[in-house]
């Protein structure tokens, strides 16, 4: 989760640059109907008013002029406003909506928070609007995975622009120096990912080579990886085998997917990594984020976390690369396991008001060109992270959503936190949480079916 202000700026910058390919049509509302409207897009990271905004790049300069022009041409006002902190934005959005005075006409929320608002009947059904066409391809890209994920009873309750813009996809970071010192090509993960040979068995062998007793004193000096965060590690492994914790059936209902063969196989591989000795043991009196320093300071060669962590590695001394997690035996291709921050509209707004809000949002986020790469190269240590891995992250056909975020009270840590110490087979661990998980899933399905 991004709380640091530097990371938030990194996220916003990526959002503005990733939105580059069109998906929604122009809709059935004449933008001239926006005259007199005053739209606020609420977020937790930044204020953006065209009267005061200071551009930070050539793209932002052009974008600022475009945003000024649409407001002049159509006679309306629109701005982004930090309406609350990261921790409080969900509460602010909910309480202000219940009071009949929403803090903003549009609010950015994480999926889990947006789902909570949906369950409390605080979101407007966006698909009721005549202003947008979900099947058109112009002038912006509206994320179809978000549309599908937030469709309940044939109504859409959340929207997002572009693919990968929130930088929530699970990725694997690797230390090039440690690869080189272990006798491996520092670009090996890139080469294997590109060749389609980046798979579990090869990954395990690489991990063994990266786990080294450098001075032959019987003590391991560098490890392939740490065992934390176990939830992020299990996310990557499960999804890379075509599995998921929670899935949706043909009726849109949530189902427990942990008993499926592809999930159990992934859990088995996760447990095997620990048994093979390639994971650094937890130090005594460790801080909760001890694993971060182990990678950042060159003690372990691999860190598995979401894409936004790239924003934390700017000061890392060693060069690093970024790839997707290798394919499991049941996967046909690489998997982008992800979710997106979504935009929602409070239930206060209906009819013509909703039409105007969605038209304004579409105009505000209309891209100026299709160059999504040039503005983000500086955030990585090599061009291959962008040209190859980010390109995969942006591919809608590879995306699998984190549906566990939609189940109130469900904690995937029930499995991930226990797996390193579990002495039975994976099925027994899954069975130990099956009853409680199914009860939570049943309750979630009751809510969405109302």
From TrEMBL:
It holds the Pfam family SBP_bac_1. Coiled coil: none annotated. InterPro entries: Bact_solute-bd_prot1, SBP. This is N-acetyl-D-glucosamine ABC transport system, sugar-binding protein. It comes from uncultured bacterium contig00100.
């Amino acid at each position: 989760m991004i709380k640091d202000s530097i990371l938030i700026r990194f996220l916003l910058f990526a959002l503005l640059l990733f939105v580059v390919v069109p998906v929604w049509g122009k809709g059935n509302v004449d933008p001239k109907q926006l005259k007199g409207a005053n739209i606020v897009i609420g977020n937790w990271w930044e204020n953006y008013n065209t009267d005061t905004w200071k551009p930070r790049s050539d793209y932002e300069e052009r974008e600022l002029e475009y945003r000024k022009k649409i407001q002049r041409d159509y006679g309306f006002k629109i701005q982004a406003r930090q309406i609350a902190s990261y921790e409080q934005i969900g509460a602010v959005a909910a309480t202000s909506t219940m009071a009949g005075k929403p803090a903003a006409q549009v609010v950015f929320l994480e999926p889990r928070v947006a789902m909570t608002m949906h369950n409390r009947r605080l979101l407007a059904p966006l698909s009721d609007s005549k202003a947008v066409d979900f099947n058109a391809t112009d002038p912006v890209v509206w994320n179809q995975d978000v549309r599908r994920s937030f469709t309940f009873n044939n109504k859409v309750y959340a929207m997002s622009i572009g693919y990968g813009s929130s930088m929530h996809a699970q990725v694997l970071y690797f230390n090039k120096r440690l690869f080189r010192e272990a006798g491996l090509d520092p670009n090996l993960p890139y080469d294997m990912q590109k060749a389609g040979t980046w798979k579990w068995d090869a990954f395990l062998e690489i991990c063994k080579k990266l786990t080294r007793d450098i001075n032959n004193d019987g003590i391991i000096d560098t490890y392939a990886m740490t065992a934390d965060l176990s939830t992020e590690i299990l996310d990557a492994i499960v999804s890379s085998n075509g599995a998921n914790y929670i899935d949706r059936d043909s009726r849109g209902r949530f189902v427990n997917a942990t008993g499926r063969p592809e999930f159990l196989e992934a859990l088995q591989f996760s447990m095997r990594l620990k048994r093979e000795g390639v994971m650094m043991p937890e130090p005594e009196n460790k801080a909760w984020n001890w694993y971060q320093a182990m990678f950042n300071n060159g003690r372990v060669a691999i860190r598995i976390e979401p894409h936004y962590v790239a924003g934390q590695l700017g000061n890392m001394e060693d060069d690093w690369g970024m790839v997707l997690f290798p394919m499991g035996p049941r996967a046909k291709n690489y998997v982008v396991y992800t979710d997106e921050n979504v935009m929602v509209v409070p239930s206060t707004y209906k009819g013509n008001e909703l039409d105007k809000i969605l038209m304004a949002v579409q105009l505000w986020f209309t891209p100026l060109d299709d160059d999504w790469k040039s503005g983000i190269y500086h955030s990585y240590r090599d061009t291959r992270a962008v040209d190859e891995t980010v390109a995969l992250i942006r591919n809608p056909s590879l995306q699998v959503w984190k549906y566990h975020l939609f189940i109130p009270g469900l904690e995937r840590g029930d499995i991930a936190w226990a797996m390193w110490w579990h002495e039975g087979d994976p099925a027994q661990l899954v069975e130990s949480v099956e009853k409680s998980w199914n009860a939570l899933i049943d309750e979630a399905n009751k809510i969405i079916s109302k």
